[in-house]
Design a protein that fits this description.
Strand content: 35-45%
Distance between the termini: 65 Å
Radius of gyration: 18 Å
CATH architecture: Sandwich
Number of helices: 2
Length: 131
Amino acid sequence: MRRLTTATLVLLATMLSAGCSKENPTAAVSGEVTYKGQPLEQGTIVLYPEKGRPANGKIEKGKIVEVTTFAPNDGAPPGKYDVAIESKEKTDNMYVKAKSFIPARYGVAKQSGLKAEIKPGKNDLKFELKD
C-alpha cells in the first residue's frame, strides 16, 4: 500500500510540474502606468488574451508588478491582449461602492482601448491614462 501511495504522489508531482512549464510558456511583464502624467499610485491590471487564461498583476507607485498567469509572478504567454486597469479607493466595507481614481472605462478591457503584445523574453509595457 505504501508503494502505491508513493508512486501516486510522484506521478502527480510530475504531471503538475510538466503542466506548468512546457505547455504554458510565459514571458516576464513589467512596466508603468500613469494617469494625467503622474504615476498611478495603486491598482490592478488584467491582460485578456484572444484565447486562454488572463494574466493579473498589481500597480504599485506607477509600476506594473507581480504579473501572474499560471504561477506567482510568472508573467504572461506571448500573444495579443486587451487590457483592463482599475484603481479604486480601499475600503473595509464591502457594501460601500469604492471610489475610482480613474475613469471607469479603463476597468473594462473591451472599452478601455488599451492593448498589449507580449513577446518572448522581457516585456516593458507603458500605459498613459487620460480623462
